[in-house]
UniProtKB/TrEMBL annotation:
ATP binds at P96, A97, Q98, A99, G100, L101, G102, G103, G104, S105, A106. It comes from Candidatus Avoscillospira stercoripullorum. The lineage of its organism: Bacteria, Bacillati, Bacillota, Clostridia, Eubacteriales. Residues 200-261 form the GHMP kinase C-terminal domain. InterPro entries: GHMP_kinase_C_dom (IPR013750), GHMP_kinase_C_sf (IPR036554), GHMP_kinase_N_dom (IPR006204), IspE (IPR004424), Ribosomal_Su5_D2-typ_SF (IPR020568), Ribsml_uS5_D2-typ_fold_subgr (IPR014721). This is 4-diphosphocytidyl-2-C-methyl-D-erythritol kinase. GO terms for molecular function: 4-(cytidine 5'-diphospho)-2-C-methyl-D-erythritol kinase activity; ATP binding. The active site is at K11, D138. Pfam families: GHMP_kinases_C (PF08544), GHMP_kinases_N (PF00288).
Length: 289
């Protein structure tokens, strides 16, 4: 039996533009995505000689074959045409669930990366991305990391200039949002907010953090903020503490602020941590995954 370990990093959507519904039921999106240092720890025992098992330190996370990390291991070995002779997956969760941070998808991406390393790279990066796409729209990005443009349903990735160095404060309100329900709601919305993706790309090209922070935006945010005052309340605290910009990530409910000084991010965190889960994070570059 061999034990392998891998960090599973969370993502932020610096911009998320929902363009429209497709015939296959998914939505075309355009999103500037960033990998951040908030992470789960994934540990795998391969070749246990026992039934497959998943253990998680947090209640409420499925510990059977419905967990995306388990599915990722199944898909990996099915495509490799090998029986690993028993796997135990252990998840140490820090990324809050149903937050728009890609937590479950990050665990799945980490399993693919760890198993590919363990098995001597039977799959190229391109082949791994194809497997990732089968597991979920965000999994390919979480596998590759850095700063990327995601198009299609989120799986079509292209390179962007690296996000300037900064500090993120990520705050998770108590409520959670169902991603499919929110996609349905946006189809019914009389108006959809579209962030300025091109301006964001230009700001990244200039490497101008203040400008980047000014173009954060998310098509889902007005829908969620209309129902939950916490979104705006959290953003206001962050901006009062000196955040250069703030927005909701993914389908929520987590909100993030961008700071150029750690002490300001820490001060905002102190103000918000009594009521909410708060996390300080930095960028994770592509080569760090
Ligand atoms: O791809 P994933 O399984 O993460 O997506 C979860 C759900 O979110 C999908 O079943 C779909 O309802 C919705 N979705 C969508 N368009 C996307 C991504 C997700 O409609 N681009």
């Amino acid at each position: 039996m061999t034990t392998i370990e891998q960090k599973a990093y969370a993502k932020l959507n610096l911009t998320l533009d929902v363009l429209g519904k497709r015939p296959d039921g998914y939505h075309d999106i355009q999103s500037v995505m960033q990998l951040i240092s908030l992470c789960d720890d994934v540990s795998l025992d391969v070749g246990t000689g026992e039934d497959w098992k998943l253990e998680c330190d947090q209640a409420g996370i499925p510990t059977d074959g419905t967990n995306l990390a388990w599915k990722a291991a199944g898909l990996f070995y099915q495509n490799m045409g090998k029986d690993p002779q028993g796997i135990t997956i252990r998840l140490t969760k820090r990324i809050p669930a149903q937050a728009g941070l890609g937590g479950g998808s990050a665990d799945a991406a980490a399993v693919l990366l760890a198993l590919n390393r363990h098995e001597g790279s039977p799959f190229s990066q391109e082949e791994l991305l194809k497997l990732a796409e089968k597991l979920g729209s965000d999994v390919p990005f979480l596998l590759s990391g850095g700063t990327k443009m995601a198009k299609g349903r989120g799986e079509a990735l292209s390179a962007l200039p690296t996000m300037p160095q900064c500090f993120y404060l990520v705050v998770k309100p108590d409520f959670s949002v169902s991603t499919p329900a929110l996609y349905q709601a946006i189809d019914q919305a009389p108006e959809v907010y579209h962030p300025q993706t091109n301006a964001m790309v230009q700001a990244l090209q200039k490497g101008d953090l203040l400008e980047v922070a000014g173009y954060l935006g998310n098509s889902f945010e007005p829908l969620v903020a209309a129902e939950h005052g916490e979104i705006l309340a959290i953003r206001t605290v962050m901006e009062d503490c000196g955040a250069l910009g703030s927005a909701m990530t993914g389908s929520g409910s987590a909100v993030f602020g961008i700071f150029d000084a750690f002490d300001m991010a820490a001060m905002a965190s102190m103000q918000l941590m009594e009521r909410y889960q708060t996390f300080l994070a930095r960028n994770i570059e592509e080569g760090e995954v």
